[in-house]
Specification:
Keywords: Transferase. This is GCN5-related N-acetyltransferase. GO terms for molecular function: acyltransferase activity, transferring groups other than amino-acyl groups. InterPro entries: Acyl_CoA_acyltransferase, GNAT_dom. The chain has a seven-stranded mixed sheet with strand order 1-2-3-4-5-7-6, with helices on both faces. It is globular. The longest helix has 14 residues. The protein has 148 residues and is α+β, with helices and mostly antiparallel strands. The N and C termini lie far apart (37 Å).
Length: 148
């Protein structure tokens, strides 16, 4: 069961949608589904799916959010596959893509109190918190990793 990361294609949307909804309301507000859809309409070229034996088990990506600034975006796993190191595989792939751009000086992630400790393992530091930012009881945890 070797995980495989491939570029997102529109045909993946039904599985991405299913996995996203399986992570609501604990990790995402259900209303964010349209935000994800809109993001994929604009940024699909830097979004990936994680598969095991041709089954989509997660997804995530990155974007350039400013001069010298890369952002991890919309990463999540099917709850049945959490705790197996697959999230780390996905994040490491996205971070590798970002660091291959010599203009990137800093990476950021906007997450919640439920996932910030995961990103700390990759060297991200908490910069600020904002209560109920994503939804009631889902706070913003803005984190940064400096590369230079």
């Amino acid at each position: 069961m070797q995980p495989r990361i491939t570029p997102y294609k529109e045909a993946h949307w039904p599985e991405i949608r299913r996995i996203f909804l399986s992570n609501t309301p604990k990790y995402f507000d259900p209303g964010e589904l349209q935000d994800l859809r809109d993001y994929l309409d604009r940024q699909a070229d830097s979004y990936f799916v994680l598969t095991i034996e041709d089954q989509v088990v997660g997804s995530g990506g990155y974007c350039l959010s400013g001069p010298g600034l890369g952002r991890l975006t919309w990463d999540f796993l099917d709850p049945a596959f959490k705790g197996q190191g697959l999230g780390s595989v996905l994040i490491e792939h996205c971070l590798h893509c970002l660091t291959s751009d010599p203009g990137i000086e800093k990476e950021e992630v906007c997450t919640s109190q439920l996932a910030y400790q995961f990103y700390e393992r990759f060297g991200f530091e908490l910069i600020r918190k904002e209560k109920d930012y994503w939804a009631k009881n889902l706070d913003l945890y803005y984190m940064v990793k400096r590369l230079v």
